[in-house]
Amino acid sequence: MKIGLLVGSLRKNSWNKKLAKEVAELLDVETYKIDLSETPFYNQDLDMGEIHPAYTKLREDVKKCDAFIFITPEYNRSLAPVLKNAIDIASRGPEGNLWAGKPATVFSSTIGTMGGVSSNLALKQSFTCVDLIAMSKPEVYLAKINELFDKDGKLIEETRPFVKSACDAFVDFAKKFID
Q1: Dist. CA 123–CA 157, nearest whole Å
Q2: With b meaning 16 or more CB within 10 Å and e meaning fewer, what string describes 115-128?
Q3: Does residue 67 contact residue 3 with C-beta atoms inside 8 Å?
Q4: How far apart are CA 71 and CA 23, in angstroms?
Q5: Residue 98: C-alpha distances to residues 45, 67, 86, 107 (Å)
Q6: If DSSP states are collapsed to H, E and C, what string results for the chain?
Q7: Residue 60: HSE in the Cβ half-sphere, 13 Å Cα cutoff
Q8: Measured distance CA(140)–CA(134) in Å, rounded
Q9: Is 38 exposed, middle or buried (0-12, 13-18, 19+ CB in 10 A)?
Q10: What is the value of pTM for the model shown?
Q11: pLDDT tens digits for 116-165?
């Protein structure tokens, strides 16, 4: 099994990128980071004739993966635009919807106290439309993410077991849908 990790923050030192690194280490299966930093917003004009290379790259990355963890901040009580863009690009194109029938989950975090609840739910709403199979439990909302890493950039001991258990639960969930 190969799990694709998609991070909704483009900032160099984002908390979500740090979380993705920790998730990759905690998962007991192969992971693949899907880089969205150079992907332009979906424009059908860039998807006709000579398809934009970033669209092709994203679609190839999605095809390499069996399941997905979307790791997202919250922007103005909604999802990160870069993740919605990735969903749109990989659901269109010459081969059709590449997300269909694949398991996915969302790990959201904020420096505030709500842990990205709104972004998490908004992403899951998009999953429904493209036939990503969302894991419902456990839900992962990490509040005050800026306080959850030690000086070495590792998740603190109070948080690490929760994230590990969510990773393990997702692997168990995903196995049900992977041939």
Answers
A1: 28
A2: bbebbbbbbbebbe
A3: yes
A4: 9
A5: 20, 11, 11, 21
A6: CEEEEEECCCCCCCHHHHHHHHHHHHCCCEEEEECCCCCCCCCHHHHCCCCCHHHHHHHHHHHCCCEEEEEECCECCECCHHHHHHHHHHCCCCCCCCCCCCEEEEEEECCCCCCCHHHHHHHHHHHHHHCCEECCCCCEEECCHHHCECCCCCECCCCHHHHHHHHHHHHHHHHCCCC
A7: 8
A8: 13
A9: exposed
A10: 0.97
A11: 999 999 999 999 999 999 999 999 999 999 999 999 999 999 999 999 99
What are 13's two structure tokens?
């030192």
Token readout for 36 is 């969205």
The candidate with the shortest Cα–Cα distance to 16, out of 167, 139, 138, 145, is 145
Alpha carbons 70 and 159: distance in angstroms, whole number: 19
Nearest C-alpha neighbor of 171 from the set 146, 138, 130:
138
Is residue 14 within 8 Å of 6, Cβ to Cβ? no
Of 121, 113, 105, 106, the closest CA to residue 146 belongs to 113
Render pLDDT for 72-118 as a digit per residue (tens, 0 to 9).
999 999 999 999 999 999 999 899 999 999 999 999 999 999 999 99
Whether the upstream peptide bond of residue 73 has omega within 30° of 0, thus cis, is: no
Measured N-to-C along each axis, helices 53-63 and 81-90 cross at an angle, to the nearest 10 degrees, of 80
